[in-house]
């Protein structure tokens, strides 16, 4: 107002100074224009009135050079201009007031709106932000105005929002403006996010595009929706998993809801039921399936629909044709329609039927069981009993009645004198008062029947009494006790010793004979002792000395074989021989039985000795017969040779015959050693075909003209390594046996071929490996052998020939030779079909060519060109004839021989200076005197290192010496021997030493 007053004074002064005219009003207009800045419109009119007064006052005070009319017009136009300006300002102020009022009302509406209202410009800047938005986002209006709306969004949503606005401004296409509410995610000032429902509209303000967003926080709604979804899912799961089936039918008789249990119970096909299906269609299916009984289909459907409408609430039990039974319960809904539940009673009905059957079975069992039973209720009234209870306790059957009091039973027992002496009522009361206490007792009635009485209180009150008849068991126990006494007496007095151990090796029981036979101390052998202690005692006594020195190892080994060793024989320290047998016990553990077999073993030994003597007698007769024949041949031919020699004739034929007889005698001796399997074989690589061909002439001489001989020798036979003389003897034995089996003539076939032994064939032969073998077969067309003879053919002394015609050693010696050579013998025979014996011997694998040096390799033999002698040799032999013969053989072979008769003389001879050139010693193993041949060799080696020693023997039973590593290394030749064999042997020994 001060400004207006100042402007008015200036305008009046200006009017009085400036010449009058239209410009006078311009000064007064400044006063009016002040009203533009004055909010109240009334001041505008006041300023206009004041300016008009000033114009009039200026007309009066200021000189007016013009006419009065002109002055008046001038002042009138000024006043008009002032009021025109005032009206313009007033109208503008009015419009502004209206606009201000409108904006105030709009802001008030926005501030009081429940939804958040946010206005943004086309650049995305916030232009308005109401109070709900403030509360929703946590920002004040001043904090967000002018900022990008992205602060209200997550970074990803903000970036997408800017892209949407940019795309809309460029293309005019938008998927959210004016479309309707959509769910977005908002971000508060504190950074937390929450779900929003957003609707976007577009407005224009003074040509500018604005976007108005209505935002609603739907956090609570989401929680409610989530809870509703969970409840809905839970309700659906309940409907689908509940044991009952259900349906919901609306007021128009249409299916609104159902679960799978209903469809399965009624038997609807999969997919048949659907929401909205008419009830009539459901009923039609059931009518066609026969669920609703016989009748015309449409009539049944119509009647059932009418019943459903008129009687909406119902509950009944139904049984389907397939046997399923269910209970349905229909309930009317408040807004029309019905809900029906269906409870499957099929299993329950089956269980009830089963229970009925079981109850009948139990009742039948109760009535027929051997045990007597009586049941009393909580008032001690007889509730149930079976006939056996009355029978066992000797009650008259008609004396027991359901409902009778227990006092009555006690009174009956009192009358029979079973309660003792005293006042009847007091004794009965005392017995009845004990009814709630468990009791077990054995009773024997006057009639001799014994039973076990048991009384047990029932959980809900009352009691159950049982009576078990044990009369027969008592009698059996008495008989068993007597039998046990008898068995114990038998057990204690039997000749065998018996000990019973449990599965933990603990002694359970034993008899006195066990300790007597085993020699174990009686104070140690007691029930409860561990078998370990018994074995430990025996180890301490030295009984298992041959098993080692580690006592714990011996004990563990014997405990471990308890269940695997069936029997064994032992000798007690006193010389008692006892047989131990162990067998598993059915209850676990094992039973050990010991039998004193001392006398039996002595008797057996005597019997074996007698059998041996008998066999030796038989053997002596057979051998004597063969040797007598050989001696007769030798003696006769030597006499003929002497006579012929005296007359100057040629004696070579007689000497050859005598030599042959002597060789057969040596072969017979070898056969005897082969029988004992103690001969030292002299194997060499042999061609079986060539050896058999060499025997051809001799074989044909021993066969009669009625016997044909066929020898079949395959080509490319494999070599074998055997003792040639033993193989010859074996072949001759088989041919002689074949000859003797055909007294009237026949055919003998000798067949030699290679044979590959398979793994399956070798598996049935002990100690024989699969691989290449040579088979030598001798077959005949004789009478053959029955099975009972074939079982014994390889046994020594067994023969089917007459007395004096055979020793029974032939096949046993063939068998012994084959087994000792690494092979076996196979025999095939049948009555009337002849016999074939096959000797199968392993193929010899030839060594490499460079190792096949001849036995007489001159590089390894010391030769003196001037004398061509083989060197000097020391001969040690206690038999004078053998010593002279051997010395002559060696001398004729080129050796210088020093012969001695025992060990000391051999040592003395080697000490002589003239004998220092001796490089080879040939000694008999068994010598008379203090030293044997092996001891002589050891002494000589000690004094003459590098000396070559060889051994000879005529004994068979020298396994411990002849098979020793020392003798095997030096070489051994068996007596008798020929000069050629002796020289070959010594050359081999010399070559071996040289190598």
Give me the side-by-side strand order of the main sheet.
2-1-5-4-3
User: What is the number of strand segments?
Assistant: 32
Helix % is 40-55%
Runs in which pLDDT lies below 50 for 5 or more consecutive residues are: 848-868
Share of residues in strands: 15-25%
Query: What's the shape?
Result: elongated
How confident is the prediction overall: mean pLDDT?
78
**Helix/strand/pairing category:** alpha+beta
The largest sheet, given as strand count, sense and whether it forms a barrel, is: 5 strands, antiparallel
Rg from Cα: 69 Å
Distance between the termini: 155 Å
User: Given the structure, what is the number of helices?
Assistant: 33
Describe this entry's structure for a reader:
The protein has 33 helices and 32 strands. By secondary structure, the chain is of the alpha+beta class. The longest helix is centred in the middle third of the chain and has 49 residues, at about 600-645. It is elongated and about 225 Å long.
């Amino acid at each position: 107002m001060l400004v207006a007053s100042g402007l008015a004074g200036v305008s009046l002064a200006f009017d009085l100074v400036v010449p009058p005219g239209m410009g006078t009003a311009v000064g007064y207009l400044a006063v009016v224009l002040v009203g533009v800045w004055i909010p109240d419109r009334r001041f505008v009119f006041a300023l206009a009135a004041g300016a008009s007064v000033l114009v009039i006052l200026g007309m009066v005070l200021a000189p007016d050079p013009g006419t009065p009319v002109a002055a008046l017009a001038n002042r009138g136009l000024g006043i008009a201009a002032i009021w025109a300006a005032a009206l313009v300002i007033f109208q503008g102020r009015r419009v502004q007031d209206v606009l201000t009022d409108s904006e105030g009302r709009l802001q008030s509406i926005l501030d009081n709106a429940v939804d958040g209202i946010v206005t943004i410009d086309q650049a995305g800047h916030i232009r308005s932000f109401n109070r709900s938005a403030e509360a929703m986002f946590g920002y004040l209006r001043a904090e967000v105005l002018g900022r990008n709306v992205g602060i209200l969004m997550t970074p990803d949503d903000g970036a997408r929002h800017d892209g949407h606005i940019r795309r809309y401004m460029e293309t005019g296409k938008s998927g959210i403006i004016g479309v309707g509410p959509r769910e977005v995610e908002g971000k508060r000032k504190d950074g937390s996010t929450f779900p929003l429902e957003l609707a976007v509209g577009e407005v224009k303000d003074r040509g500018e595009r604005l976007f108005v967003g209505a935002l609603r926080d739907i956090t609570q709604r989401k929680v409610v929706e989530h809870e509703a979804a969970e409840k809905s899912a839970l309700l659906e799961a309940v409907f689908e998993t509940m044991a009952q089936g259900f349906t919901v039918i609306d007021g128009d008789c249409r299916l609104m809801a159902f679960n799978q249990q209903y469809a399965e119970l009624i038997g609807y096909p999969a997919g048949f039921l659907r929401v909205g299906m008419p009830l009539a269609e459901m009923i039609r299916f059931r009518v066609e399936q026969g669920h609703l009984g016989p009748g015309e289909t449409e009539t049944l459907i119509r009647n059932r629909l009418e019943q459903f409408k008129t009687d909406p609430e119902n509950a009944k039990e139904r049984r389907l044709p397939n046997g399923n039974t269910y209970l349905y319960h229909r309930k009317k809904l408040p807004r029309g329609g019905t809900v029906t539940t269906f409870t499957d009673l099929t299993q329950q009905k089956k269980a009830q039927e089963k229970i009925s059957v079981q109850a009948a079975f139990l009742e039948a069992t109760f009535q027929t069981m051997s045990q007597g039973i009586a049941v009393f209720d909580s008032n001690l009234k007889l509730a149930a009993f079976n006939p056996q209870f009355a029978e066992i306790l000797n009650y008259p059957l008609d004396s027991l009645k359901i409902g009778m009091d227990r006092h009555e039973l006690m009174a009956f027992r009192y009358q029979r004198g079973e309660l003792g002496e005293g006042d009847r009522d007091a004794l009965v009361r005392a017995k009845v008062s004990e009814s709630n206490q468990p009791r077990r007792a054995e009773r024997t009635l006057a009639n001799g029947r014994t039973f076990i009485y048991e009384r047990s209180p029932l959980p809900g009150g009352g009691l159950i009494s049982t009576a078990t008849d044990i009369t027969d068991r008592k009698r059996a126990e008495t008989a068993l006790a007597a039998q046990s006494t008898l068995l114990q007496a038998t057990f204690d007095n039997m000749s065998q010793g018996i000990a019973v151990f449990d599965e933990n090796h603990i002694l359970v029981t034993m008899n006195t004979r066990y300790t007597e036979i085993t020699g174990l101390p009686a104070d140690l052998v007691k029930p409860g002792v561990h078998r370990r202690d018994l074995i430990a005692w025996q180890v301490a006594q030295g009984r298992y000395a041959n098993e080692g020195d580690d006592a714990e190892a011996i004990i563990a080994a014997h405990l471990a074989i308890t269940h695997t060793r069936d029997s064994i024989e032992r000798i007690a320290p006193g010389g008692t021989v006892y047989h131990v047998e162990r067998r598993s016990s059915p209850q676990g553990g094992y039973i050990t039985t010991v039998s004193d077999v001392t006398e039996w073993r002595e008797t057996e030994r005597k019997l074996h000795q007698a059998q041996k003597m008998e066999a030796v007698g038989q053997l002596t007769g057979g051998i004597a017969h063969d040797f007598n024949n050989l001696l007769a041949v030798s003696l006769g031919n030597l006499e003929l040779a002497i006579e012929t020699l005296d007359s100057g004739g040629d004696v070579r034929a007689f000497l050859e015959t005598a030599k042959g007889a002597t060789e057969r005698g040596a072969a017979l001796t070898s056969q005897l050693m082969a029988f004992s399997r103690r001969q030292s074989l002299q194997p060499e690589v042999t061609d079986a075909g060539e050896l058999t061909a060499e025997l051809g002439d001799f074989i044909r001489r021993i066969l009669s003209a009625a016997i044909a001989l066929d020898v079949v020798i395959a080509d490319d036979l494999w070599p074998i390594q055997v003792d040639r003389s033993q193989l010859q003897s074996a072949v001759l034995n088989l041919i002689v046996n074949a000859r003797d089996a055909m007294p009237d003539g026949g055919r003998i076939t000798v067949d030699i071929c290679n044979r590959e032994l398979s793994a399956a064939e070798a598996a049935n032969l002990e100690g024989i490996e699969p691989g290449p073998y040579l088979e030598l077969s001798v077959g005949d067309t004789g009478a053959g052998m029955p099975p009972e003879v074939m079982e014994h053919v390889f046994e020594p002394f067994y023969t089917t020939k007459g007395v004096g015609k055979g020793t029974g050693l032939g096949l046993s010696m063939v068998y012994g030779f084959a087994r000792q050579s690494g092979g076996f013998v196979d025999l095939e025979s049948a009555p009337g079909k002849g016999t074939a014996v096959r000797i199968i011997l392993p193929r010899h694998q030839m060594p490499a060519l460079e190792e096949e040096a001849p036995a007489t390799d001159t590089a390894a033999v010391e030769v003196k060109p001037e004398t061509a002698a083989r060197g000097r040799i020391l001969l040690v032999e206690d038999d004078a004839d053998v010593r002279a013969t051997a010395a002559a053989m060696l001398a004729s072979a080129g050796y210088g021989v020093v012969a001695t008769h025992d060990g000391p003389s051999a040592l003395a001879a080697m000490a002589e200076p003239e004998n220092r050139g001796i490089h080879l010693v040939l000694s008999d193993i068994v010598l008379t005197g203090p030293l044997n041949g092996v001891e002589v060799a050891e002494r000589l080696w000690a004094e003459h290192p590098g000396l070559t020693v060889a051994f000879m023997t005529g004994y068979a039973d020298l396994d411990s010496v002849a098979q020793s590593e020392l003798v095997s290394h030096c070489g051994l030749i068996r007596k008798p021997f020929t000069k050629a064999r002796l020289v070959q042997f010594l050359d081999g020994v010399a070559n071996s030493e040289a190598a």
